[in-house]
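User: Some background: our group keeps a shared notebook of sequences we're curious about, and every so often someone picks one and asks for a predicted structure to add to the entry. Today it's my turn. The entry only has the sequence so far, pasted here. Could you supply the structure so I can complete it?
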Amino acid sequence: MDQPMASRLAQEWFEAWNRHDLDAILAHYAEDVEFQSPFITKLLGDPSGKIVGKEALRVYFAKGLQAYPDLHFEPIQTLLGLDSIVLYYRSVNQLLSAELMVLNEQGLVIQVKAHYSS
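Assistant: Of course. Here's the predicted structure to add to the notebook entry:
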């Protein structure tokens, strides 16, 4: 992972979300992705807050886009790790969010841990 790759991924990810383009959003994720977020509990009623697999992620993201039709993410910072990035941004209802994304060798997201301000 280098800074140009991280910047490109972040830019494409934010643009896809802000267009509400579900296919473009999901293009960033591996088939076996593991995704954790407090919003999973809220939107899906799943107390584990965890989703496994791209198809389950599609259902969750579609529900999120439906629940928040005015959804718009404002990037603040992209932080670079060895095989991961953290996207720090303003999210739903102006909450601050930080998403830790671990990437595989193909540059696809295989694990996400989402965090939100209270």
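Suggested note for the entry: The chain has one domain: 3-116. The two ends are 31 Å apart (CA to CA).
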